[in-house]
Amino acid sequence: MRIVSVEPLDRRKSRVLTDEGLAFALFSGEIERYGIREGEELCPDTYEELLREVLCPRAKESLVRLLEASDKTEAELRRRLKEKGCPPEAVETALASAKEYGYVDDRRYAENYVRSACPSKSRRQMEGFLAAKGVNRELIRECLEEAQIDEAGQVRLLLEKRGFCREKADERELRRTMAFLSRRGFSYEAILDIMHKKD
Q1: Above 90 in pLDDT, residue 132?
Q2: Out of 29, 44, 91, 195, which residue is the most buried by the measure of CB atoms under 10 Å away?
Q3: Rg of the Cα trace of the chain?
Q4: How far apart are CA 22 and CA 87, in angstroms?
Q5: In this predicted structure, which of 51-55, 170-174, 193-197 has the lowest mean pLDDT?
Q6: What's the Cα-to-Cα distance from 102 to each of 1, 93, 94, 99, 132, rounded to whole Å?
Q7: How many whole angstroms separate alpha carbon 155 and alpha carbon 112?
């Protein structure tokens, strides 16, 4: 592969781009040590050594630091490591190692999130959040089903917090409250049931 460009990211690090679309970040000393020059070939042996000695260990360190801050999904970690200049091989090596030791587990992540968010978030809100984090749709569905969400109880609690009183509410207040609950992702059935509008 040929080195297309070596662009400084800051005073110490540069982004190396190859003609195969591969990009990775290296410190100035590493660029010097491995003889990386714009327009020159990067032989497969040198790249393999770079992966083994520099890029994979760095990806693992970055992954550990990301997880120290908070639990993350596999998709989040993959995206963040790529942003940090880790090539795909290093990202996958780091993720495989973390998964092997149980540090990355999308099921655990989804179950923990559902358990903590369940009292205040609707099923649709939780589903949207987890999907945005890159959790598999089937896994989300399973976790939400296992949680046995009491949507009616959630709606009741929200209405209590808002100080809503069905007996005192006029038609305008009823519509506003229903719109609020709908925006929060609660099902129409649960909203009508709790607000005593069901026939």
Answers
A1: yes
A2: 91
A3: 25
A4: 7
A5: 193-197
A6: 35, 14, 12, 5, 22
A7: 21
Is the predicted pLDDT of residue 62 greater than 90, yes or no? yes
- The Cα 41–Cα 43 span in angstroms is 6
Q: Which residues contact 8 (CB under 8 A, 6 or more apart)?
A: 14, 15
- Kindly report the CA angle at 34 between 32 and 39, in degrees rounded to 5? 85
Give the closest residue to 62 by CA, choosing from 33, 113, 97: 97
pTM of the model: 0.76
| Locus of tokens 């592969």 | 1
Query: Rounded to an integer, what distance in angstroms lies between the CA atom of residue 101 and that of residue 129?
Result: 26
pLDDT tens-digit series, residues 81-117: 999 989 999 999 999 999 999 999 999 999 999 998 8
Rounded Cα–Cα distance for residues 173 and 132 (Å): 33
Contact 51, 111 (CB under 8 A): no
Handedness of CA 86, 109, 155, 160 (dihedral sign): negative
Residue 190 — very low, low, confident or very high, per pLDDT cuts 50/70/90? confident
The CATH number that domain 3-100 falls under is 1.10.10
DSSP code, position 9: S
- The values of phi and psi at residue 8, to 5°, are -65, 135
Can you tell me the distance from the alpha carbon of 172 to that of 93, in angstroms, rounded to the nearest whole number? 58
Residue extents of the structural domains in the chain: 3-100, 106-147, 152-194
